[in-house]
Amino acid sequence: MINAGDRTSLDVVTVRHRHAEWPVLVRHPRLRPGEHPSGLVIELHGSQSDARTQMALSGLHDVADAERFVVAAPQGALRMPGDTDPDGGWGWNVPGVPTTAGDLPPADARDDVGFLMRVIDEICVRADVRKRAAWMAGFSGGARMAAAFAVRHPERVTALAAVAGLRAGRPRPDDPSAPDPTDFPSGPPVPVVAFHGTGDPVNAYDGDGSLRWGYPVEVAARTWARRNGAVQDAGRRSIAPGVSRIRYSGRDARSEVMLYVTAGDGHTWPGSSIDMAMDGLGSKTESISATTEIRAFFRRHGPDAP
Q1: Which domain holds residue 257?
Q2: How many domains does the chain have?
Q3: Residue 172 and residue 170: Cα distance in Å, rounded?
Q4: CATH number at residue 90
Q5: 222-266 pLDDT, tens per residue?
Q6: Which residues lie within the region annotated Disordered (predicted)?
Q7: Residue 31, SS3?
Q8: 152 found inside a domain
Q9: Residue 305 lies in a domain
Q10: Do strands 237-240 and 243-249 pair parallel, antiparallel, or not at all (unpaired)?
Q11: I need a labelling partner for 242 at 20 to 30 A (CA). Which of 25, 47, 83, 86 fits?
């Protein structure tokens, strides 16, 4: 166990999976005597990135104390071709999906679904998180990976937050403009909140027809809603300058699906302190903060929520 008095730092925890050891960044909340963490947040970086960059991008670790979150950021094991940054350039092995380089991961690539299961188990035990489940959050390729994990293990996902990368299964091989139903089986509902810019140059809002990305973001949200047994509320609602929201709900509180659409924005994290325009990824809105909305969504859909 981690001593309660040491739970304010950013630690590197080693998680063993399939005869190899992998580092995971962990931020522990400041707890009063007798308190337990409210739950575990797993956040996944985008392709050609790394765990530290993701933590800086989202700032989710900054709300750890207020929400009693344990925030863990594992790192992908796929080295992205052409990346020269010794600390960055990693990607995830999303099952059956090509990487941003256009190729399927090698056959001996780390099983990231199994790896994330191991991360949840290990961190929950070490950090004294009572329920062996996690809020999953991801950006870009990390969002795709988080969604793939949620599809396969909904019982281990408290809620899903996807920024610039919501998927509902891989694209159909014969028609990438639609999700592959064989990769999105029925299961218990998972609350979903997603954010996407209509000008995203990497993961196109309206889809790109590729086997990596494929179908439109609204199709992904609608597919999750259908799986959760939710129906769309009355129309698309404008909630801030340049920002609209599509919401689905049902009888089960866990059926909720929300998609925030940012007009003209690129491949970015809304409200982040990091400006990605210089990397050619487009603009980001300051009208909303994805981190603030994710925080509220996770609070509403906690481990003990009905």
Answers
A1: 4-300
A2: 1
A3: 6
A4: 3.40.50.1820
A5: 999 999 999 988 678 999 999 999 999 998 989 999 999 999 999
A6: 167-188
A7: coil
A8: yes
A9: no
A10: antiparallel
A11: 47
